Amino acid sequence: MSRPRPGRGYRYGRWRGGPDPLAPPYDLGSAVDEIGDSVLGGSGVREALRELLRRGMDGRRGLDELRRSVRERLRQARTAGRMDGTLQEVRELLDRALEAERRALFPDPDDAARLAEAELDALPQDTAGAVRALKDYPFRSPEAREAYDRIQDLLRREVLDSSFANMKQALENATEQDMQAVKDMVADLSRLVDAHNRGEDTDEQFREFMDEHGQFFPDDPQSVEELIDSLARRAAAQERMMAGLSPEQRAELADLMAQTMSDMGLASEMAHLQDALRQARPDLPWGQRGQVPDGEQSLGLGDATSAVAELADLEALSNQLSQGYAGASLADVDEELLEQALGREAVDDLAALRQMERELERQGYLNRSDGKLELSPKAVRRLGATALRRVFAKLDAAGRGEHDVADAGAAGELTGSSREWQFGDEQPLDVVRTVRNAVLRTAGAPHADRDRKVSIAVEDFEVVETERRTGAAVALLVDLSYSMALRGTWGAAKSTAMALHSLVTTRFPQDAIQIIGFSSTAQVLKPETLAELSVDTLQGTNLQHGLMLARRFLARHRDAEPVVLVVTDGEPTAHLEEDGTPYFCWPPMPETIAKTVAEVERVARSGATLNVFALDPEPSLVHFVHDITARAGGRVFTPDSDRLGEYVVADYLRTRRGRRAR
Hints:
Layout: E1 2-4, E2 10-12, H1 29-40, H2 45-55, H3 63-78, H4 85-105, H5 111-121, H6 127-133, H7 142-163, H8 167-170, H9 176-197, H10 203-213, H11 224-243, H12 247-264, H13 267-280, H14 301-322, H15 335-342, H16 344-362, E3 366-369, E4 372-375, H17 377-397, E5 414-420, H18 431-443, E6 462-466, E7 472-479, H19 482-486, H20 490-507, E8 512-518, E9 522-525, H21 527-532, H22 543-555, E10 561-568, E11 574-576, E12 582-584, H23 590-605, E13 609-614, H24 619-632, E14 636-637, H25 644-661
Parallel strand pairs: 7-8, 7-10, 10-13, 13-14
Antiparallel strand pairs: 1-2, 3-4, 5-6, 8-9, 11-12
């Protein structure tokens, strides 16, 4: 790496990480061009970028393909199984215990056996009530006792597994010491979450907690925030899982869970922990019924909670990838969820999209101000050049290329004097003076001799001065009314405006151009604004106001040839009242037509050429534009929208050639 030091050149040192200073710059050419295609097709910049991110590029999946994969994974997750698996298993074990106990009681003639049978017959009908009633029952059958003990063990493991992932496997064949370790962990966890909620510094407390109880958290959270986030998501998923059961199932399972927690001495502690997690993450959908799996396989309580949590994560990931909400950003996409759902390659695809978005801003193609995304002047120039290149490609294909300006030097009466050439000059070269300047410049050079060839430099060129006015002032009026979008002509109009602006500013810099958009009112449009612009949803085609702005522009360039070009798809339906407010009416009012025609005549008196490009062959529009161009000495063109740019640019070039020929 190096850095400049005033008066001492550069100082070099060891590269200590960061971006590779020798890496080639990120190639954004195709990305900018794809955005440009969408913008020139009528989209805004934000929509164009979003479309590119959705499609992807350079062999990388876009957001749409990633989301389709997530939706497929979501479809598979919905068929994971039924959520009442624990309840079903408890019922089966209960039936097995009761059947074994009755078999043991039946051959016994003692009255105690009959009383025991009566007690079994009087058990509550619901599973939870029956399990509770048998808690202190003295089973005679070892098989029945074993089945009932399995119910207790199953409930302990499943209930804890629904709150702490993988607890079911960890507590298989658990001892009293194992259960005490769980109680200690829950108590310490509650204190940790409470301290975090109070805003205390819990870094040291978290490290101590993980040192003591890390075996219960195989996902190995690296901070208290990660730990709380994982537990809160699971707790919320547990509530959604319960909400997805039938009322009868929910009541039975809630009863079983409550009595299990009570038996373990964890009822109050787990309730407190649940409240603390809810306080820590109130943004989660607590208690809401979300998507739940519905397949053939029965899922245990912990697995059902995991399935519901996965569904919620996949649904959230799908929403993040859709980017269809206010303020959406690629930064919203959770990389961890994406990797869990689709693997590491999907994260790499997302990283490529993020890098492209960052580079578009870093390399100066996009500007973000107050949350609004805009094309930079650099990108607008590229778009204009692209639009112009496409127009000339069509002109060349039709045999009407840039040869229209081949006689650019044959203009006006010669004054007999010459001057130094400047960029953009169209006057003919003064060959004699140019060669003379080159000879004089090189005459004193070392080793000069008469056989030496004379090389001509830029500063040697001189041009012949003429009397004509060399510049033009071009006002391009573009219809922004909603009908342009409905007819599919807005993209062509936008592309044409950017192409003409690029042509004038880059190849005829002595000319001036102003783009004016008009709908219910008119406004002057900068190229950057035009690139982002969409058609106006307000009603009205206020050509009168557009022509007023055009006259003001032409008045500022009195020494230039005035040219007014109008692109529209409808006759005027709006005008400005005396107080400056716009007035709209359809069909057009005679007052609207009269005010527009009056403005046309003012434009004509300024000496401007007025040509109209009518994009709708509707007779009333054609009649109107023929009338106003006749008043202003202009012409009417009725091109298809895909040839609009070709017509407008060719007309501008033809108009310039016509002026030179006068």
